[in-house]
């Protein structure tokens, strides 16, 4: 999906024009992938623009940076305030927000410590990540030949730029084989996640999702869906499902800040359930969008108003 540019980007403490947001080609991040980032959405609601789970995304950004020994030269509150201000300066009612912290221009070589840490926040207009009709009709996916990283190789709990080279292999393979997305297994052969989404499987009314030790990113939409499911009286089980569980599932869906709640209609050309969003998926979708679009009370304090 092509980027629709906005007027301003915030970079290292200053609001600058979109076209002026540049870094040197010898920046450490370009050569070694030394960056951590986030992706979150602002929704247009009857009460005005609302950013969904801003605090949690910022906390995860700082957690990712801590794992990689990166000192972010701004506070959490400063970055949260910037996100709100940037939405206003770009006159957006709804937006995708991309904060990133990365090692910049300093020295070349694997050692990142001599390179300064830069922080950028951008906002842009971005539609449905897996297609405009995906939320209703679902998407066709395959189990990837690529696995997620093994424990103690790359830290899966960090949302790091370098990790997404693995995601790109999963995504490109799926697209070239005619699928929308791929699902990766972990290093033990059990289900992990998509290239940029967490995974949920429903069987006999019980919701299953791979746990954190399945080399998954601790997704914020994943946590949201688990909370909403429990609010609705549904049972959620965190365990490592086998690949074939996908084929006999009643419903399967992806979650993510970009993907939101996207049903999966087939896996490896085997139809899942009725081949579209199932009843529990629809119930979770409705509750999710009712909360984030302001039709239901925000009892979990997930929304930050853009004043």
Write a concise synopsis of the structure shown.
The chain has 307 residues and is of the alpha+beta class. The protein is built from eight helices and 17 strands. Helix 2 packs across helix 3.
Topology:
Layout: E1 8-11, E2 14-17, H1 28-32, E3 35-37, E4 40-45, E5 48-52, H2 54-67, H3 76-89, E6 95-103, E7 117-124, H4 134-137, E8 139-143, H5 164-176, E9 181-185, E10 191-194, E11 198-203, E12 206-209, H6 220-231, E13 235-238, H7 245-248, E14 251-256, E15 260-267, E16 270-271, H8 279-292, E17 303-305
Parallel strand pairs: 8-9, 8-15, 12-13
Antiparallel strand pairs: 1-2, 1-7, 3-6, 4-5, 4-6, 5-17, 6-7, 9-10, 11-12, 11-14, 14-15, 15-16
Helix pairs in contact: 2-3
Structure notes:
The protein is an alpha+beta fold and 307 residues long. It folds into 2 domains: 8-124, D-amino Acid Aminotransferase, Chain A, domain 1, CATH 3.30.470; 134-292, D-amino Acid Aminotransferase, Chain A, domain 2 (Alpha-Beta Barrel), CATH 3.20.10.10. It has helices spanning 28-32, 54-67, 76-89, 134-137, 164-176, 220-231, 245-248, 279-292, and strands spanning 8-11, 14-17, 35-37, 40-45, 48-52, 95-103, 117-124, 139-143, 181-185, 191-194, 198-203, 206-209, 235-238, 251-256, 260-267, 270-271, 303-305. The strands form 2 sheets. Strands 8, 9, 10, 11, 12, 13, 14, 15 and 16 form a 9-stranded mixed sheet that branches. Strands 1, 2, 3, 4, 5, 6, 7 and 17 form an 8-stranded antiparallel sheet that branches. The protein is globular, with a radius of gyration of 19 Å.
């Amino acid at each position: 999906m092509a980027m629709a540019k906005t007027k301003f980007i915030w970079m290292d403490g200053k609001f600058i024009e979109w076209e002026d947001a540049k870094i040197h080609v010898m920046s450490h991040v370009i050569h070694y992938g030394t960056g951590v980032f986030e992706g979150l959405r602002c929704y247009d609601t009857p009460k005005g623009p609302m950013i969904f789970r801003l605090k949690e995304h910022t906390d995860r950004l700082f957690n990712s940076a801590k794992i990689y020994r990166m000192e972010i030269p701004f506070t959490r509150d400063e970055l949260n305030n910037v996100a709100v201000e940037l939405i206003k300066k770009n006159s957006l009612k709804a937006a995708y927000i991309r904060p990133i912290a990365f090692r910049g221009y300093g020295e070349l070589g694997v050692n990142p410590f001599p390179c300064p840490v830069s922080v950028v926040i951008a906002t842009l207009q971005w539609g449905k990540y897996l297609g405009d009709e995906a939320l209703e009709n679902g998407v066709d996916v395959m189990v990837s030949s690529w696995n997620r990283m093994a424990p103690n190789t790359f830290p899966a709990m960090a949302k790091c730029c370098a990790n997404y080279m693995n995601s790109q292999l999963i995504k490109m393979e799926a697209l070239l084989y005619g699928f929308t997305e791929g699902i990766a297994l972990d290093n033990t052969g059990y289900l992990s996640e998509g290239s940029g989404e967490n995974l949920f499987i429903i069987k006999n009314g019980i919701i299953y999702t791979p746990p954190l030790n399945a080399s998954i990113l601790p997704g914020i939409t994943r946590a949201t869906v688990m909370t909403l499911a429990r609010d609705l009286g549904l049972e959620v089980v965190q365990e490592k499902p086998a690949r074939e569980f996908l084929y006999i599932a009643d419903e399967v869906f992806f979650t993510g800040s970009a993907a939101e709640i996207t049903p999966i209609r087939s896996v490896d050309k085997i139809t899942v359930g009725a081949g579209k969003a199932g009843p529990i998926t629809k119930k979770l979708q409705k509750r999710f969008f009712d909360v984030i679009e302001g039709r239901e009370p925000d009892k979990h304090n997930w929304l930050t108003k853009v004043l």
